[in-house]
Write a structure and sequence with these properties.
Blueprint: H1 2-21, H2 33-46, H3 48-65, H4 70-97, H5 109-117, E1 127-134, E2 143-149, E3 157-163, H6 178-186, E4 190-194, H7 206-221, E5 227-237, H8 239-249, E6 269-273, H9 290-300, H10 310-315, E7 329-334, H11 342-355, E8 360-365, H12 380-398
Parallel strand pairs: 3-4, 3-5, 5-6, 6-7, 7-8
Antiparallel strand pairs: 1-2, 2-4
């Protein structure tokens, strides 16, 4: 029985380790397999060190109890090698993130190992959450949470608005980017985490309208919570990355602001993470998965196909909204992303950098998977610090950072 259990465990650990370390386009060619591979890969990256330790313990325990076949021993050794490779790449990603607006400290091995061993941590005790504040007419879908430091700052706090991901059809506030939200609030920022209307019940542009409405509400009301409306930034991952990039670029588009056309929705900085920025093959870089993406969007998010609603598809593609006065942007994306194409994100960043007069930074993680920052696991500790340094540098350049 022990022999059978060890074989099952060894094969399962190998599958997770392989998916975490090896990026393959093959799963995209098999319906639904990309999501299974993505799940294994994300687990293999977030839990690389605990699972590496489990593999070592399992192997020694099995060797002391049963006679294992050479094949199972080889599988275990390959599993250890793959988890080690993932850890090394994660450390490389942490080092690369430390070079975003570097502060001279570099990546910390201590933070890296702590995140590796304890990826799931309790909420910060020095941060307070104000729940379910309404910013619009659509019930719970137009509610937001506000995170502030328990020790109230003397000066008004800069504001970071977060939009969750979930393929525009699932997800809600207080689910994602909790490491970043906690870190920013602990550093004296006011963080706003928003819900927005989702498909398939609601169709685009409802989602971007809600994000812009939330920005408008923040600018008009955040002083009540000791926030500073003179500095408002946006961040979000996946679908949220798409929405915040679009909101940052199209804040003046009155057709996306029904009922609040004249409201000020401009933001001072934008940090989209592993987003989708091109719905219409504008860059030519989106080679793998574009047909699947358009099919998904047509069925669940958009009011119809690209051929039927060409203007709208182009309007809600961030790459189609690029202009010279785009806000400063830090765009983060992992090379192993299974759900949002890396090359397309890089092409968006390059196009933006060629046009915008403001700062554009594209930070690529060597093996980062989609949703890599959902836990405190590596390289999330350096991710949160990089976002903080970038936003503080923008504040400094704008003159809103107090000495």
């Amino acid at each position: 029985m022990i022999h059978v259990l060890h074989i099952f465990l060894a094969v399962s650990l190998f599958a997770v380790a392989f998916a975490g370390a090896i990026h393959s386009e093959l799963p995209r060619k098999v319906r639904h397999l990309s999501f299974i591979y993505f799940g294994w890969s994300l687990l293999g990256q977030i839990l690389a060190l605990p699972l590496l330790i489990l593999t070592i313990g399992s192997l020694f325990f099995a060797l002391s109890r049963v006679q294992l076949s050479p094949l199972i021993v080889i599988i275990n050794i390959l599993t250890l090698a793959l988890f080690t490779l993932t850890m090394l790449r994660s450390w490389q990603g942490s080092q690369m993130l430390s070079q975003v607006e570097p502060d001279g400290q570099g990546a910390s091995i201590g933070r890296f190992l702590k995140g590796s061993l304890f990826p799931f941590q309790l909420p910060r005790r020095d941060v307070k959450r104000l729940k379910n504040i309404s910013y619009g007419p659509s019930g719970r879908k137009n509610q937001l949470d506000i995170y502030i430091p328990k020790a109230k700052p003397l000066l008004p706090m800069p504001v970071l608005i977060h939009a969750h991901g979930g393929g525009w059809v699932v997800g809600r506030k207080h689910q994602q980017a909790q490491p970043l939200i906690g870190h920013m609030a602990s550093k004296g920022w006011l963080v706003v985490d928003v819900n927005y209307r989702l498909g398939p019940r609601n169709k685009m542009p409802a989602m971007i309208q809600d994000v812009l409405l939330a920005v408008s509400w923040v600018k008009a009301n955040i002083e009540t919570y000791n926030g500073d409306p003179s500095f408002v930034a946006l961040t979000g991952g996946s679908a949220g990355g798409h929405l915040v990039a679009l909101a940052g670029l199209a804040s003046a588009d009155e057709s996306l602001k029904p009922g609040f056309e004249q409201a000020d929705c401009a933001v001072d900085a934008c940090v989209p993470v592993y987003g989708v920025y091109d719905f219409c093959k504008r860059s030519g870089a989106f080679n793998e998965g574009i047909d699947e993406l358009q099919t998904f969007l047509t069925r669940l998010v958009m009011p119809g196909s690209p051929e039927m609603h060409e203007a709208l598809w182009d309007q809600v593609s961030p790459i189609g909204q690029i202009h010279s006065q785009a806000p400063p942007m830090l765009i983060l994306h992992g090379r192993h992303d299974m759900l949002a194409d890396f090359e397309s994100a890089k092409a968006f960043a390059e196009t933006l950098n060629q046009t915008s007069t403001n700062k554009v930074i594209f930070a690529e993680l060597p093996s980062g998977q989609h949703a890599y920052d959902i836990a405190h696991a590596p390289p999330t500790p350096e991710h949160t610090r990089a976002v903080y340094r970038f936003l503080e540098s923008v504040r400094r350049a704008k003159g809103t950072l107090q000495p």
